[in-house]
Design the sequence.
């Protein structure tokens, strides 16, 4: 089979990669289609080369559509909606597979334009989306992004090579893009957590857009501390960081589900800033994007009401990692699905059988 993966954003690749790996192992022809309008071509070219994956650049979805209609692949994977499905479906079958399992209603609404099949993660999510779109095809497979951790092919980070102390416990701080707690952390916060390694993995947009200079300056200040490693924009995969860390700090990211699926403690920041587009007269946008019907993190792990309360909570979660074990197990079944490292195998089986 000829199978293409639509890479609107570079952070789709960690979700696609385990599936690409399984399909290549079975002898299928696979390639990434990467959008230069959304991704820095110069910055990412060497990263894509290092992945040893075949790829083609297109400017936007219109150019991608033309390529798909010309190549007529058997299957095309999408991480979001796509505007030209009526034309595409005359030539190819399509897959929708989200890059995260976060709380945004858009997780469900991207199925407003149905694809041939959508691969789903947990039981609750499957049930909900089947109720919303009873005529469409959904198949529960799990969360392929985490397969390399569960099948133990992901080795994680070498802390010593990063200049960190392997004898220390490691915190992963992975703030969301919007809302974000990033601005609520002082420039000297690594000094207050000196007994820990700190891995900082922020959204690629925060690092790459000029409008976020203040955030970038704050991150650069953290980078100067010997117990901190800040991931570069080229390190688009969170998976090695998830594998390595002992505890996660975030606020509204699907990373919370992913880390909890590894049965490791998460600490949820109830303090954060909103971008201007969600403030004042635009606050309705925030309610719409994180609506009352969306998934919440209320019982997934410990919550910190403000920055000052964060450290004792971190310490308690590291010393008592079983605090929320039962909650994590339930969230995992409901939202992430099977954690046997075989989501990609189930996906490949489905494509071959259909």
Sequence:
């Amino acid at each position: 089979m000829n199978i293409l993966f639509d890479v609107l954003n570079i952070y789709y690749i960690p979700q696609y990669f385990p599936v690409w790996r399984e399909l290549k192992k079975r002898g299928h022809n696979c390639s990434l289609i990467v959008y230069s309008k959304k991704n820095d071509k110069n910055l990412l070219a060497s990263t894509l080369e290092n992945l040893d994956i075949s790829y083609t650049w297109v400017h936007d979805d219109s150019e991608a559509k033309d390529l798909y209609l010309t190549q007529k692949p058997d299957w095309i994977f999408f991480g979001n909606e796509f505007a030209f499905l009526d034309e595409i479906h005359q030539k190819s079958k399509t897959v929708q597979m989200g890059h995260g399992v976060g709380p945004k209603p858009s997780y469900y609404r991207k199925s407003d334009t149905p694809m041939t099949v959508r691969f789903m993660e947990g039981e609750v999510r499957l049930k909900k989306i089947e109720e919303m779109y009873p005529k469409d095809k959904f198949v529960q497979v799990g969360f392929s992004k985490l397969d390399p951790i569960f099948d133990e092919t992901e080795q994680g980070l070498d802390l010593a090579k990063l200049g960190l102390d392997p004898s220390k416990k490691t915190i992963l701080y992975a703030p969301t893009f919007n809302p974000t707690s990033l601005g609520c952390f002082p420039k000297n916060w690594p000094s207050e957590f000196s007994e820990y390694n700190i891995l900082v993995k922020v959204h690629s947009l925060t690092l790459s857009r000029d409008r976020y200079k203040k955030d970038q300056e704050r991150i650069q200040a953290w980078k100067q501390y010997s117990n901190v490693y800040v991931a570069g924009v080229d390190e688009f995969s969170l998976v090695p960081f998830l594998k390595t860390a002992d505890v996660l700090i975030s606020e509204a990211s699907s990373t919370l589900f992913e880390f909890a699926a590894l049965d490791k403690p998460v600490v949820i920041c109830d303090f954060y800033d909103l971008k201007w587009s969600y403030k004042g007269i635009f606050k309705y946008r925030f309610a719409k994007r994180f609506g009352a019907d969306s998934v919440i993190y209320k019982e997934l792990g410990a919550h910190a009401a403000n920055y000052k309360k964060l450290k004792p909570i971190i310490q308690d979660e590291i010393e008592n990692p079983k605090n929320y074990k039962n909650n994590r197990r339930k969230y995992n079944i409901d939202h992430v699905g099977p954690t046997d490292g075989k989501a990609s195998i189930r996906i490949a089986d489905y494509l071959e059988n259909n």
